[in-house]
Structure formats: structure tokens, C-alpha cells
Amino acid sequence: MPQMLRMPSKADLPDGTRREFVAELFIYFKEAGRPTPARIAATTSSIQDPLPVSRETIRRLLKGETISTWERVDAVLRALCEIGGMDPDRRRWPESDNWQDDDPTTCRERLRQLLDDDIDGVEPENVPAPVPPARSSSGWGGSRTRPPQDDAWATTSKQAPTAPANGGYSDEPPF
Fold it and tell me: Which of 17, 52, 58, 110 has CB atoms 3.0–4.6 Å from 117's, for a disulfide?
């Protein structure tokens, strides 16, 4: 008798983008009643816009041993939703009392994002922060390091500022 597919342990599939992808796929796998890879493969051939996916590919996707193209992953998602009587384009968080209720992301969109993150190797905690554009040295958009500004009020030495040569004070502003 074939062994029941289970979510891989953290020893088999450590935390990261692949585990997040597999965990999301497992949500739909469980909601469909944990069908066999053979049943999922047969359903990928009979759904609307069929794209046959082998049962071995399905098993390897659910074990986190491989990734595949979005077209194949989408076919597996649609097959699981067909078996479970779900809509792959439903909101991912349908509960009205859920704190993420305002998230309009669909099941299909979320799975696609996780697949892309896994392919690109984007780790949530390692996502680079956006780099602000460099400023030029003149006006807005200037360089990050500004040249020293002349400050008429600042004294750079320990000497007191000298009075103007005519003995009075200048009417010119210091800037």
C-alpha cells in the first residue's frame, strides 16, 4: 500500500521559500482530502484547459523535492481545487473575523508569489531594502555627501571674529 503524503519535516525541508511554497500547496492538498498523486494527475488531464502533470512530479512538488513551471503548478492547484470543490480564485482569507480580512489576495496569486520567491531565492528576511536614488551635488536630487557649506556665523578657529576694516559693522547679511 502506498504511503500517505505528509508535509515534510523541518529536517527534510528547512525553513525558507521552498517550505513556504510547499506549506501553501499542502493547504489545498488537505482541503481536497489528501488525494493520491495518481488521482491528482488524472484530474490535471481532465480539467478545463488541461495540462497533464505526472504523478511523480506531483509527489515531488508536495515533498519539496523540486519546483516546476507556473503552468504545471497551476494545473496541480486547479486539480486539487476541482477535487475539493473549491475555487482557486477565491480570496485566501475568506473569514470575516480574520485580522487579514482586508487582504484581497487569491489562493492562486499567493501560490504564484511563493513559487516566484522560491525560484528567485528571495528570503523574506533577506529582501534588500529599496535604495533611494543618489542625489546630485546641485539642488534637489543632490549627492548623499554634501560639500561643506559656508556658515558666516560659525567660527572655525578659537579667535574671535574680526570687525570690518572700516571700523563699523557691515550691513550685508552673513549669508
Answer: 17
Give the whole-angstrom CA distance, residue 70 versus residue 72. Answer: 5
Single-letter residue type at 140: W
What is the C-alpha to C-alpha distance for residues 58 and 71, in angstroms, rounded to an integer? 13
166 lies in a domain? Answer: no
**pLDDT tens, position by position, 123-152:** 655 544 444 444 444 444 444 445 455 655
Q: Is residue 161 part of a domain?
A: no
Q: What's the number of CA atoms in the CB half-sphere (13 Å) around residue 9?
A: 2
In this prediction the pTM is 0.65
Containing structural domain, residue 50: 17-119
Give the cell for residue 89: 480564485
Say which amino acid occupies 146. Answer: R
In a domain, 21, yes or no: yes
Q: Does residue 6 sit within a domain?
A: no
How many domains is the chain built from? Answer: 1
- Which region holds residue 67: left if phi is over 0, alpha if psi is between -120 and 50, else beta? beta
